[in-house]
Amino acid sequence: MKISVITAMYNSQATLLDNINSVNAQMHPDVEQIFIDGASTDGSVQVARKHAKKPFKLISEPDEGIYDAFNKGLSHASGDVIAFLNTDDFYAADDILAQVSDVFETRNVDAVYGDLVYVSQNDTRKIRRYWKSGSYQEDAFLKGWLPPHPTFMCKKEVYEKFGRFDTHLKIAADYELMFRFIQRYKISLAYLPRVFVKMRSGGRSNTIKGIIEANLEVFQAFRQNGYRIHWRASVMKPLSKVAQYFKKPPTTL
Fold first, then answer.
1. In a domain, 237, yes or no
2. Tens digit of pLDDT for each residue in 214-244?
3. Distance between CA 180 and CA 187 in Å, rounded?
4. How many domains does the chain have?
5. Does residue 25 lie within any of the structural domains?
6. Partner of 34 at 20 to 30 A CA spacing, among 3, 70, 151, 168?
7. Quick check: helix, strand or coil at residue 250?
């Protein structure tokens, strides 16, 4: 089973090497990395070309934002399974993709997801938050649940059947896509209870302004998929982020 790891980047030289090294280290024998660069000027393209060891493709040109880059990556991906790993993110262990592939093959599901930890920008050994996804229960999206997008790995055929990222959404198109796939179209899921990804803290969606903007786009995601806005989703989704600061991550990290 071939896995395509799509990495959207723009002036990401400072953190890109951790991302690439974590993909290089994956034990799974059939992995490609797709770099979609938004015309960086800081040497990111050179870093990717120099350090990527897995088969890779690199497209560098202006784009219309991260979700446009994701869609470009989907167009260039040749894998059976699609993963997204942004430049602030890296895999937590070298057997992540091997285990994910095994779950796909043994359980015959459409998508696999896991857990994520946020780490310090300057010291990735320091864990700031622990996002434990938990097993999916029907209609969990209506109660504020969602899996971390960097851990969500889905068969390419699902994108071909149910569509790509809605680029009209600027901060929550990943939420809308997972809502559409899981809640609306009921794709089959498997939860692998381990940390897949380490993500550096920060980012637009984790600011107060970003949380407000994201919630407005969550409401839009409900509407455009034919669902009425559920008050529990609007309350529980931001509260779940607060709870992540108090959960204890696995001691093996």
1. yes
2. 778 888 899 999 998 766 665 555 555 555 6
3. 9
4. 1
5. yes
6. 168
7. coil
